[in-house]
Structure formats: structure tokens, C-alpha cells
Design a protein that fits this description.
CATH topology of the domain at 3-174: Carbamate kinase
CATH architecture of the domain at 3-174: 3-Layer(aba) Sandwich
Number of helices: 12
Length: about 425
């Protein structure tokens, strides 16, 4: 008997029929002789609808009360799913995040897990029940308040439960068949990967891939959790995310590999796209030591998260330079206000805001040992007449900023240039990726 932790996103439990479909999959796993713990998201667009309601009654909702409101969505879906399983003749028990022992810090809206004490879950499993847990939420011991985990919270809940319960595998179900070489909605001929290293998955998630969220991948890598990204809408095998020293389970497709082993890696694992960023250019910055530090201290104090940074060579005639950086669109306004408030002290001339950019990233562990990866990227974009505005690299990633309108075409031509195109178009069962 194995222990499976399964996570189902909002599109997987969007309505009553979907919930019954998920219940059947869970029951089939139980019938096969395995213990099952399920983390579930709110139904469909419930969280967005609750946020809209909150905005209608309060321009700036109190963070504590907003968490109380948003956590109700997962409680609805967990109870309905437990009812559906009961109707199929199997015992199921639903638990909120606090009942499941999901202990977090006190940060409302973006709490981080500090401990998991799944005592009640173990008791329920020992008594033969299927366990259903509300994802996305936890409990702070000091304030005794309900908290929510923020973006990707249900993925993180599932991985944390898998780690605490020493599960054999954590299955993350969504509306796509696994992890692809690119977003199949952008690149129709993207191919599903049999496996990907957690190192590559971290880079893909950080740069726009939405099937798995970066916090969940980080948690899995840190705690040695084997992730299997699969589709709710088909029974086919998905993509295995292998941490250090992990191998593909017996019977899984593809070669037996592990992150860190000495073996031939594909040069490029995937191409990620991101339209969620904006660019700020600080123009006319005095080109003297310490000015860049002043600028980014101001940005850091505003709470904005900077991604890519480029500084131009200063003009000899003026002794001034321009510094450009990217950040999430939602952080741009606060960063601009903070910088404008310190303009006279820093001594720069102007601020330019651009929210019509797109970031394209090429990721692959094989980049370490292969030359010419950058040349292939730049040549493909050049032939297509797509201009590069910024470049950033890591050991296994190259990212470029292009015009937002060019991003989809850039992804397609680069995907083709690296030989990643499949023979047929990928299937997307619902349409959101969650």
C-alpha cells in the first residue's frame, strides 16, 4: 500500500459534474489499495468572485477578514468532494487547513508554512478514511487567526502534506496533461515532458510556466517530495519532477534518471513566457559609485520585487547613464512613487514606465555543457525581426525581454529553433492551466 497525496485545482472541481469526476478518480486510487490525501482548491472562479465582493464592500479590505472570506471557497469544495465520495460508498473526512495542522506565520494573504502537524489526518487514514484538506489556508498559533498562502497555495499545501506524511508521491492535477516544452496555448506543437529536474522546474516556474508554482517546487525540492504533474481530464501519465537523487518510478515512461547524475541531458527542457512584468527605466543617473545602490534600496523598501537589471554605458559628454529593471506589473506603481519621492536626493532626470513587455526564457540543464545555445536564440529572434530589449542569464537559463505583442511569435520561433516541436498539436482540456 502506498500513500498518494493528490491536489485538484479550481478547474478540476469547477461544478458538480467535475467534482463527481474527481471523486471517482480518488475512489479508483483507494480501490487500488492505496491511502489517499487530497488537497483541493476553491471551485472554478470562486476566489476571484469573493475578491470582487470584498472590493464592492470595502476599497481596501482588512487583511484578516479577507483571509476569513477567501478561505471559505476551499471549505465549500472540500465538503462537496467528501459528500461525493461518501455517495460512492467510501468514507471521506474533510478538514480545514487549521484542522489539518497547517501552521503558518502571521502574514495575511501570503503566509508561509512553518510547521505541519497532521495528527488528525493520520488518525483518519489509520481508520480507513479518505482525507480531504482545504488547500491555500493555514493557522497561526500566536494570533490564532486563519491565514491564506497566496498564489499557488493549494499546490504548496499538497507538497507540504506529502512531506509531513512521507507520501510516496504528490500528484498535482490540472487541466493540462503535464509539463510541456512551452505553454501549449502559446505554442500549439509543444511536447509533454516525461520528466524534468526540480532545478529546471524552478527556473520554468519562476519565469512564467504556470502548471506548477515556484513555492511548491521549492518546498518539494527541500523536503524530497516526488511530484507527478497530471491532467484531471485524462488517465495518461504526466510529467515527473525529480529532485536530487530521485529516479523515475518503475513503469514510468522514459529513461531512469536523477538530478545530479552524470548523463546526457537535453540541451533545452522548455521555453517559458511571461506577460506579467513591467519595465522601469531611470534615466540620467549620475554615473558615480553608489547611485545604483541608492536606487535599488528605494525600490526594496517599497516592497517591489526586481527581476532583470540592465545599466547602459554612460555618455562621456554628460557623465550620466540609464538603469532599466523589470518587476511585476502590480509592483510598478509603488516603485515609481517611491523613486519619484527620492528623485532630488538621487539626482536622476526622469522615470519611464513600460507595461507592454514580455519575457521569454529558455531553460535547460544541458546548457552547462553545450555551446551555441545563446546564438540559436538570438538568431531565431533576429530572423523573425523581433528586437531584444534586455538579456539575463543563469547557469541553466537565458531570458530576454521583447515587446509584449511579439512574445507569442518569439516563443514559437525559438521553440522550433531548438527542435522542440512535436508532430501534433498539444491537447488542453479546459483552458486555464490550473
Amino acid at each position: 500500500m502506498a500513500l498518494f497525496v493528490q491536489k485538484y485545482g479550481g478547474s478540476s472541481v469547477a461544478d458538480a459534474e467535475s467534482i463527481k469526476r474527481v471523486a471517482k478518480r480518488i475512489v479508483d486510487t483507494r480501490r487500488a489499495g492505496h491511502d489517499v490525501v487530497v488537497a483541493v482548491s476553491a471551485m472554478g472562479d470562486t476566489t476571484d468572485e469573493l475578491l470582487d465582493l470584498a472590493a464592492q464592500v470595502a476599497p481596501i479590505p482588512a487583511p484578516r477578514e479577507l483571509d476569513m472570506l477567501l478561505s471559505s471557497g476551499e471549505r465549500i469544495s472540500m465538503a462537496l468532494l467528501a459528500m461525493a465520495i461518501h455517495s460512492m460508498g467510501f468514507e471521506a473526512r474533510s478538514f480545514t487547513g487549521s484542522q489539518a495542522g497547517m501552521i503558518t506565520d502571521a502574514t495575511h494573504g501570503a503566509a508561509r508554512i512553518v510547521d505541519v502537524t497532521p495528527v488528525r489526518l493520520r488518525e483518519a487514514l489509520d481508520e480507513g478514511a479518505i482525507v480531504i484538506v482545504a488547500g491555500f489556508q493555514g493557522f497561526n498559533r500566536d494570533t490564532r487567526d486563519i491565514t491564506t498562502l497566496g498564489r499557488g497555495g493549494s499546490d504548496t499545501t499538497a507538497v507540504a502534506l506529502a512531506a509531513a506524511l512521507d507520501a510516496d508521491v504528490c500528484e498535482i492535477y490540472s487541466d493540462v496533461d503535464g509539463i510541456f516544452t512551452a505553454d501549449p496555448r502559446v505554442v500549439p506543437r509543444a511536447q509533454k515532458l516525461t520528466h524534468v529536474s526540480s532545478e529546471e522546474m524552478l527556473e520554468l516556474a519562476a519565469n512564467g510556466a504556470k502548471v506548477l508554482y515556484i513555492r511548491a517546487v521549492e518546498y518539494a525540492r527541500r523536503h524530497g517530495v516526488l511530484i507527478h504533474a497530471r491532467s484531471t481530464f485524462s488517465s495518461g501519465e504526466g510529467t515527473w519532477v525529480l529532485g536530487h537523487g530521485m529516479t523515475l518510478p518503475a513503469g514510468a515512461g522514459g529513461p531512469t534518471v536523477a538530478e545530479g547524475e552524470e548523463m546526457e541531458e537535453p540541451i533545452v527542457a522548455g521555453v517559458a513566457t511571461d506577460l506579467s512584468q513591467a519595465k522601469i527605466t531611470v534615466t540620467g543617473v549620475p554615473d558615480v559609485p553608489g547611485k545604483a545602490a541608492e536606487i535599488f534600496k528605494i525600490v526594496a523598501k517599497s516592497g517591489a520585487n526586481v527581476d532583470m537589471i540592465v545599466q547602459n554605458v554612460s555618455a562621456a559628454s554628460t557623465g550620466r547613464t540609464d538603469i532599466s529593471f523589470t518587476l511585476p506589473k502590480e509592483d510598478a506603481a509603488i516603485a515609481l512613487r517611491a523613486l519619484a519621492g527620492e528623485q532630488s536626493d538621487v539626482g536622476f532626470e526622469n522615470l519611464v514606465h513600460d507595461d507592454q513587455i514580455g519575457k521569454l526564457s529558455v531553460v535547460g540543464a544541458g546548457m552547462r555543457t553545450h555551446s551555441g545555445v545563446s546564438a540559436t536564440l538570438f538568431e531565431a529572434l533576429s530572423v523573425s525581426g523581433i528586437n531584444i530589449e534586455m538579456i539575463s542569464t543563469s547557469e541553466i537559463r537565458i531570458s530576454v525581454v521583447v515587446r509584449g505583442d511579439d512574445l507569442a511569435e518569439a516563443a514559437r520561433v525559438v521553440h522550433t529553433a531548438y527542435g522542440l516541436d512535436g508532430d501534433a498539436e498539444a491537447v488542453v482540456h479546459a483552458g486555464s492551466g490550473r
